[in-house]
């Protein structure tokens, strides 16, 4: 197989033996395009000595400021020259067909939106084996049964359910792991790579996968792209994983705005429903009325596009902002609602289905917008109305209170 060069990025920290095994395994790849390797060292006490292999291998380093695998992978990608980019953990040894299978999976599924491909991680016990034995097993693809720890059931079950991610939904970002990951350079750069602000074990791959999903990318699992992780999956390492997984969940709660990833009723900087609103000539009373109705929805953030400051009592609500949404919110919010003027919806904003009302309202999935999916225009649905004038707030609130059955004092 010939073609453009592919880059393999290997994050590393103070583990020269496994790094040697990984590079020796990459040297044995069959049928792959030319490979260049970037070892991204996350501040090891001493720079790793690179073994003599028949591949171009470069070392890049960053200072040690905690466990920064996300930043290390970004550093490696920035210094790589190939496309696609393959990310392979420093304790994960690729079988001889790994790179070829990853490259072919990307080429097969590329439809113009970018592809995020994940290989098949299998677990193996390498303790007590020498370099020659390990390389022999990998090249012959015959790992002894007493050393083969298999693949995590939660991954194999997920890939079966989603038909190798071709039928993945927004919740299936959890099936993408950075230990055996590949993507087009264009997609990686478009979504900003890994979130380098994430420090500590885990979560950066799920965050990347969720942003790729929102950005319209295709996800795919390449079962023939096998790589062997030295040791069991996290759940099989003989310690209580609760604290470690809780740290991961806490980091993701601010980043992944799905009900399965955060508690209800808590304000987060990235909302599940991102609303943009143009107030035009409307004053603070109309703004309070319209935005107050919007905020009755679950996990909503509102940005007032044509205001430099938030008017009236709304300025005290952390869910309401002046100006344009920040890139982090645009990259992660899966639902977008755009009001071109103040409206009364007659329902919560998170209940809106796909809708395109010319010059008034758009309610869409961010993924569909990214993929260029269009909707036919429709009239404003029954129960919705344009808020043309400033409302009489006292009367409006009194009517609303009476409709709830409240008794005036």
TrEMBL record:
Residues 7-112 form the Glycosyltransferase 2-like domain. The keyword Transferase applies. The keyword Transferase applies. Belongs to the glycosyltransferase 2 family. Pfam families: Glyco_transf_7C, Glycos_transf_2. Keywords: Glycosyltransferase, Transferase. Residues 314-334 are annotated as: Disordered. It comes from the Bacteria. Residues 177-219 form the Galactosyltransferase C-terminal domain. InterPro entries: Galactosyl_T_C (IPR027791), Glyco_trans_2-like (IPR001173), Nucleotide-diphossugar_trans (IPR029044). Pathway: Cell wall biogenesis; cell wall polysaccharide biosynthesis. This is GT2 family glycosyltransferase. Signal peptide: none annotated. PANTHER family: GALACTOFURANOSYLTRANSFERASE GLFT2, RHAMNOSYLTRANSFERASE WBBL. GO terms for molecular function: glycosyltransferase activity. It comes from Barrientosiimonas humi.
